[in-house]
Amino acid sequence: MNERQNRKRYVQKRDEPKSWKITKKVVIIALCIVVTPIIILSMLDPQNWSYMILIFLFGPLLNRKY
Fold first, then answer.
1. How many domains does one find in the chain?
2. Please, are residues 26 and 18 in contact by the beta-carbon 8 Å criterion?
3. Does the pLDDT of residue 33 top 60, yes or no?
4. Is residue 35 part of a domain?
5. With pLDDT > 90 as the criterion, what percentage of the chain qualifies?
6. Which of 14, 56, 12 is nearest to 35 (CA)?
7. In a domain, 1, yes or no
8. What is the pLDDT of residue 66?
9. Residue 52: domain span
10. Residue 36 lies in a domain
């Protein structure tokens, strides 16, 4: 009984990190999308902000392969 319970616990624990890896990747990508333009825009003139935001948001969407 104990071996079966331990195996079940191990399998359940092993399945959890897959979802955690996906959520971590999504969070990191979202942070990069939000933080990178802010850092770069802070170094540039405020007049160019709208263009830079459009480039950073839509550039990866246009360049990705389907």
1. 1
2. no
3. yes
4. yes
5. 0
6. 56
7. no
8. 54
9. 24-60
10. yes
